[in-house]
Fold this sequence. Notes:
With 388 residues, the protein is of the alpha+beta class. It has helices at residues 4-9, 17-50, 58-64, 69-81, 88-122, 128-156, 161-178, 180-195, 235-240, 266-281, 314-335, 361-372, 384-387; strands at 203-206, 209-216, 220-224, 230-234, 243-245, 252-260, 286-296, 301-309.
Amino acid sequence: MLDLDKWQSWPISNNSLTDWLVAAGITAAIFAVLGVSRPVIRRYAKKLRATEQRELLEIPAEVLSRTTLAFLVAVAMYFGLRSLELGDKLQTVFNSIITITVFVQFGVWTAAAVRAWVERRRTNAADRAAVGSLGIISFIAGVVIWAVVLLAALDNLGVNITALVAGLGIGGVAVALALQNVLGDLFASLAIALDRPFVMGDFLQVDDFLGSVENIGIKTTRLRSLDGEQIVFSNSNLLTSRVRNFGRMTNRRVVFATNVAYETPLEHIERIPAMLREIVEAEKDTRFDRAHFQRHGVASLEFETVYFVLTPDFNRHMDIQQSINFEIHRRFLKLGIPFASSTQRQLYPAPVVAGTAPISTAEAVGAGEREEMGTVPLFPPTSAKKSR
């Protein structure tokens, strides 16, 4: 049973019925006002999110829409209980509960503000460099926010924060050793976010793998290959690899060869470099570098042409090269300049048939060479029956 004498000794018993009714009325009124305001703010925030235009109050409305019911109760009780005499111990308990609730609500608001800012930046397609680091920034910000909230709540409860932080430091060393691979990828993702060796949408070549950057995460980076499959790299391995970033290419250097036959007249050979230059310069988005008669090849006269495509677009580069090849072929046909064909000349000794005189080495070589050129058969049409 309740000891009435002990109850009457508590300071809370000094409050009259009127005081309790006033406190209950203040608490109910404040909670009613805040309870009605919360759904109104949430509907307004939802309306702002639905609009394509960026509104000034979009982030504040999104933050306030995350207000929890516990926070509303805590605020209402704080103002309601101020009209009552609670005593030091009970007042301390209520103050601690209200303070912790406020800290938690502050963490919810701050985390919501960070998420809203991240989503706003993520939808900005023009800023590709920031998109890859937004997830990492959001994760780190969330960890810092809730770590501060936790330490503030523990400090309000009377926990020695200094000793706790020191203990966490010692324990953190053991955790870091156990999770060194995961932490390595985490810090590698932070390095990618700060240094930005590549961003979302860049086309990379990592060792023998090629693909465009699809996602930069906390632990892994994912590429989408040309064949359609997804290639996953751990961030630490990716930073230690040699990465070729084609997304940073401003122009493309192109080298191509043109081989003509040795039978080409000298006056045509002398015209070919100027002809190649004229063909390249006629194309848009190109900058001609040089065209030369490079060398006498094994089976052809070799010309080398170098030019730059003033756009990193690979499809545009191939369109230009195709147009150049068509024009070269068209002009060579008009002038009668033959392209060199890849041929191999092989020499066969003529066989010695019974009853015939041996063929000299020069005759055998000539016969074999003429056969390869298509003038005489490889073996003379001599049979054993004819020789008899």
